[in-house]
Amino acid sequence: MSNKGELKVTVVEASGLKDKDTVGKSDPYIELYIDKGYKQKTTTKEGTLSPVWNENFKFNINNQHTLYLKVLDKDITDSDKIGETKVDLKEVFSKGYVDTWVNLPALLGLTSHGKVHLVKVFAGLVSSQWIIMRRIVEAKNLKDTDFIGKSDPYVELWIEKGYKQKTTVKDGTLNPVWNEDFKFNIHGEHTLHLKVLDKDITEDDKIGEAKVDLKEVFSKGYVDDWFKLPALLGLSSHGQVHLVLQFTAE
């Protein structure tokens, strides 16, 4: 697969940073870059050695293999370096998604100046796209929204709202079986949206809906599981949907 495309990096947090201030605690921020000529940086978090950012950055990748990180302590005059590291991008090129902590090694790598939590997502160019293959297998114990008879359920699913796909309608059942396949291109999105509806002559009634976090399928490559359709406040369920999810390159 070509290592050309877009790299999305979320700087989540840091932990156990070395304190550079003699009075009080450091005010850390992070510089990150692929090419030295284009550095990006987080906001500064005042007076903490365990800052939380949850800030997102994008980089265009043209066969570069390394992400550089430098953690600094913001001072009135010159910022002091807390630690720095290099992150090899081979794993995210291979898997498409990596959620990990990286250490900030001290001199000679004998100790650590702390660690940084990163989430990296790589979306290749059109010639080599990451895709999610989905099979909607079945549902069970769906909430009946019809006063007479049983619901006629179908499922809408989407990654981006502008492009929804849907199953066929199964008449008069609360335990429908579909075994229908769908495919979506992935460009760094993390969530699959599901909505189960009851087909009616006038307006379709919503049976339930759910959001499926794709982190597990990004990590494992394949997930076969049941997903609940939570009711109000999540105190009960409007049924479950059986999905098979596969993450691959095309």
Automatic annotation (TrEMBL):
Classification via CDD domains: C2
Domain C2: 1-102, 112-227
Matching InterPro entries: C2_dom, C2_domain_sf, Ingression_C2_domain
Domain of life: Eukaryota
One protein family per Pfam: C2
Transmembrane segments: none
Gene3D superfamilies: C2 domain (2.60.40.150)
Record protein name field: 5461_t:CDS:1
Species per Swiss-Prot/TrEMBL record: Ambispora gerdemannii
